[in-house]
Specification:
Distance between the termini: 31 Å
Radius of gyration: 27 Å
Number of strands: 18
Shape: globular
Helix content: 40-55%
Strand content: 15-25%
Strand order of the largest sheet: 8-9-13-10-12-11
Largest sheet: 6 strands, mixed
Length: 773
């Protein structure tokens, strides 16, 4: 936590993770802080003493992570898959390890491991961004000049024997939906068949026009989600298919997946399918290289996996050489029925039931415009990479819902891309993915959006598809019914998450009577009552020109964009702008506590206060308070988690929109410590209200906020969406620049006064979810 604070002081982030064959420490930060960051990182990596007190605290934290993992069906099912597919290789073991083995470790064991492996000749350092190589080299040499090389012991890795029979493992778990995994062994990353296997996964199950998505989700409605993937690390990996579905459909879904694989082996793939997969892979590679972290990850990953920093370039060359006949060849060679590992996690009672059944950042100037129908446009040229993002946003979302239509915004976003008067959902996905593009729709608290990402040579195709969706979306009845079912599944899944349940309970009581208190996915009752008529009414009222903004950011010519936009969207319904009158939430005269019981191994607590809206002069202070209370160096994290060992995680969050929302503090804890940790959290909030932040905390929060802004704006997608929403809400597309200056100049006293008014003068809502609550 001390290191995290020091990095945040220079506006950056630091984190670490361990995978099967490496430990990675990464920093994301403004370039001005690189020299300091290198010193901090080298000191942390090579000069740690692992204090006994810190070691004991982290032991407890990791034990809690074990407990949290035991509650998560996705983590459990993934671990079961690798334990089933691998019988000898270490990939069979979860990265976090096994709890009995972990409990047997002591500080001496960890120090011995650290001294044997953390050596300069066992480290690969990658720095990407606005830096000079000479400065980096000299900085590293200074930071490591007294660190000795070590004679590293070789690591023996047993090789997994050939799997010659099918393996299956199915078990019951506390979940509402089944998780199905099917996997087959494939070679390591450097094998010449890997590019063809990657393209096979794309054709089979990546994207809305993929074979499995179109058949199992769209046509036969057997799954709620499905995906195909390859895991090809330094050792032989896996080709897999994952699905989330209702338990009674699992066996049929398995058979259909195998039928689709057989069809590829027999009939091959169409040239258009192969080319689409190839373009998607290229588009994904360009997108990764758009950020400094992505470029560093590409270099480091290539080196660690293959010993060559430019391996990804070679891989893309091999990808381009894959032929149509290669896909059925690798499918036949690797993805065969008799060699599969099939794993599923299922709702309690479902396997017994089945058994009984069987028995029986802004790059250039923003150009503004307004079409004749009132649609506002933003165009920003950025020629660094051959990518273009198009996003249309409209004032709507949860804020315009009523109790009877709760969940309609999410349903609309789900069905919006399911076909137009001119093209089916499959045709839309096929056309866009054939040029390496993608399309998505979403809804939030204050808006709905449709976004398209393409490479620059195909931006007109992207705009044509976006315009067609906005003008001609049909909301076919069959798709409405299917997406309602998927949204009902999302509601059930949300009910399994204690953090989601506690946060929702807090909002429902704190903002009672206001749309922000509604459930985003709706309730089973409201969702069942919604139909195509409601979606058409919603679209025709809110997704209209005078209520929207279109942003086109990327490698384009602004004048050409203006002409095409007028031609394609000039006929969009004009409509009217605005929001309905909103009720004021009920006043809380005294603190309120709400509780719910869940059969989990953890308890989650939320403490919520009324927040500000987007236009409030208090917003910047609240943003900085949120930053100061939600990182690894925050006073709450250090006091409650590090010093007292009372919590698994501690943080804060905000709901901010066109209407005042909520500011909440939350944590996860051992159910036996629930009372004690709530008292500590409330005491920390009281001190924050009385004393505000220290100057050190405020400066660190400012640097972290400014660093996050700089990092976020590396992404063309994030920048385009953020500017479009700010323009839509009346703040202006360049509002983030105004806020940036406001963050730099806000005073300690102003932040303290805002903390007093929001956390000291208000009564909170406390929500507690856990076993026996």
């Amino acid at each position: 936590s001390q290191l995290a604070q020091q990095v945040q002081d220079i506006g950056g982030y630091i984190n670490a993770y361990t995978s099967f064959d490496r430990t990675v420490y990464w920093m994301d930060l403004p370039s001005k802080g690189v020299e300091v960051a290198l010193e901090l990182l080298c000191d942390a990596v090579f000069h740690s003493v692992i204090p006994a007190e810190e070691f004991a605290k982290e032991q407890e934290v990791i034990r809690r992570e074990f407990a949290m993992g035991f509650d998560d069906p996705d983590q459990v099912s993934s671990k079961k898959l690798f334990a089933t597919a691998y019988r000898v290789h270490p990939y069979q073991h979860p990265v976090i390890g096994h709890l009995p083995v972990f409990d047997a470790l002591n500080r001496a064991d960890v120090l011995e491991y650290y001294r044997r492996r953390y050596a300069p000749n066992n480290v690969f350092l990658v720095v990407s961004g606005d830096v000079r190589a000479e400065d980096i080299r000299s900085g590293v040499e200074r930071a490591t000049e007294k660190v000795a090389r070590l004679a590293l012991e070789p690591v023996w890795v047993p090789q997994e024997p050939l799997q010659i029979t099918r393996r299956e493992h199915h078990e019951e778990f506390a979940t509402e939906l089944s998780r199905l995994h099917m996997a087959w062994h494939i070679p390591d990353l450097t094998h010449p068949d890997i590019p063809a296997l990657d393209l096979l996964a794309s054709v089979l199950g990546q994207g809305r026009s993929s074979r499995l998505y179109r058949r199992l989700r769209e046509r036969d409605a057997l799954v709620h989600s499905i995906d195909a993937w390859t895991y090809s690390p330094t050792e032989p990996g896996l080709f897999g298919v994952d699905a989330v579905l209702d338990s009674e459909r699992r066996e049929l879904a398995q058979r259909v997946i195998e039928e689709e694989l057989d069809e590829i082996c027999r009939g091959g793939v169409r040239p258009q399918e192969l080319e689409k997969a190839r373009r998607m892979a290229l588009s994904g590679q360009w997108s990764m290289l758009a950020t400094a972290r992505g470029r560093a990850s590409d270099l480091g990953g290539s080196w660690m996996a293959t010993g060559h920093t430019q391996f990804s370039t070679r891989y893309l060359e091999l990808l381009q050489s894959v032929r149509v006949e290669d896909l059925p060849r690798v499918a036949e060679a690797y993805v065969t029925r008799g060699h599969a590992s099939v794993v599923s996690i299922n709702p309690k009672g479902s396997l017994r039931s089945q058994a009984r059944t069987e028995a029986s950042g802004l790059r250039g100037e923003i150009r503004r415009g307004t079409l004749g129908n009132g649609l506002r446009t933003l165009v920003c040229e950025d020629h660094k990479l051959p990518l273009v993002t198009l996003v249309a946003v409209f004032k709507a979302g949860a804020l315009v819902e009523e109790p009877a239509t709760m969940g309609v915004s999410k349903l609309l976003a789900r069905v919006l891309l399911k076909g137009t008067r001119s093209h089916s959902a499959e045709e839309i996905a096929e056309r866009l993915e054939a040029v390496g593009g993608g399309i998505g729709a979403d809804s939030g608290n204050n808006s709905v959006s449709v976004s398209v990402r393409v490479m620059s040579g195909d931006w007109r195709v992207g705009l044509e598809i976006l315009a067609e969706v906005l003008r001609e979306a049909e909301f076919p009845e069959a798709h409405v019914a299917r997406e309602k079912e998927a949204q009902l599944a999302a509601i059930r899944a949300e009910e399994e998450e204690p953090v989601a349940v506690a946060g929702r309970m807090m909002r429902e009581r704190l903002l009672e009577g206001h749309p922000y208190a509604f459930r985003r996915n709706g309730t089973p009752e409201t969702l069942q009552a919604l139909g195509r008529k409601h979606l058409l009414e919603y679209r025709d009222r809110w997704m209209v020109s005078r209520n929207g903004v279109l942003a086109v950011f990327g490698d384009v010519d602004a004048q050409e964009v203006d002409r095409e936009v007028e031609a394609l969207l000039g006929g969009l319904r004009p409509g009217e702008a605005g929001h309905p009158r909103l009720p004021e939430p009920l006043h809380l005269g005294a603190p309120v506590e709400v509780r719910a019981t869940m059969d989990k191994q953890q308890s989650v607590l939320f403490v919520g206060y009324r927040g500000a809206d987007l236009f409030s002069p208090d917003r910047t202070a609240l943003d900085l308070l949120d930053e100061a209370c939600s990182d690894l160096g925050s006073r709450m994290f250090i006091r409650i988690r590090e010093q007292l060992g009372l919590a698994y995680f501690v943080g804060s969050s905000q709901l901010v929109g066109l209407s005042p929302g909520a500011f909440s503090f939350y944590l996860g804890t051992d159910p036996l410590k629930q009372t004690a940790v709530l008292a500590e959290l409330l005491d920390e909030i009281r001190q924050l209200a009385e004393q505000g932040l220290t100057l050190e905390e405020l400066n660190r929060a400012k640097e972290k906020w400014l660093g996050a802004l700089e990092i976020r704006n590396q992404s063309l997608d994030a920048l385009a969406l953020g500017c479009a929403l700010d323009e839509l809400y009346g703040l202006g597309a360049e509002h983030y620049l105004v806020v940036r200056d406001r963050v730099r100049t806000i005073s300690l006293e102003e932040v303290r006064e805002v903390a007093r008014r929001y956390f000291g003068a208000q009564s909170p809502v406390v929500a507690v979810v856990g076993p026996g609550s």
